[in-house]
Amino acid sequence: MPPSSSIAVRELPLFPLPEVVLFPGRPLPLHIFEFRYRIMMNTILDSDRRFGVLLMEPSGKPASVGCCAEIVRFQRLPDDRMKILTLGQQRFRVLEYVREKPYRVGLVEWIEDQPPQRELNSLAANVEQLLRDVVRLSAKLTEQNIELPDDIPSLPRELSYWVASNLYGVPAEQQMLLEMQDTVARLEREAEILTSTRNHLAARTVLKDTLKE
Predict the structure, then answer these.
(1) Which is nearest to 110 in space by CA: 35, 2, 21?
(2) Which of 43, 165, 170, 212 has its CA 20 to 30 A from that of 86?
(3) What is the tens place of the pLDDT at every residue in 151-171?
(4) Do 204 and 212 form a contact (C-beta atoms < 8 A)?
(5) Are 122 and 28 in contact (CB under 8 A)?
């Protein structure tokens, strides 16, 4: 295990979710209604407002790598239900489970990307251009006004998290990107995904234009 992984170890309440992968810097709104998680959130709100989000895999087991979420806003509803808005913080790896009830608590270590071995700006610029191509072709194909937000991160690592968090319907792929500790590898994989998507959309656009003639 690289030295950059072994930054700190702490206990963290854990919240497994199906088909949800949280990334650093990305928002995650949640509706809390299960009794055990209502207990968890009330406990967290009295401490540092942080808990871990883990992907619940199809096997029914939580993934071993997740992302810490911090509650930035919350609203209490009837029956002690709660709406919360969280923001992704550090990634972590679960070392062991400390307890399972009333909710899971794990002993976790924080993980970070390894220092890059090459210049990342050109790779990040390529990924951003591919993203813009995909959005442009999607807008043309669906005849809708689709635009990228103005606040897309410019830093390569943060951009890689942003792109990964906006991949839809592929939680296993997102989990793989979350677990990567190499910004270059993450951006290169995202470039592959976006290139494939762009080519698919371009082919569909050509077909649509041909049928119109």
Answers:
(1) 2
(2) 170
(3) 899 899 999 999 999 998 899
(4) no
(5) no
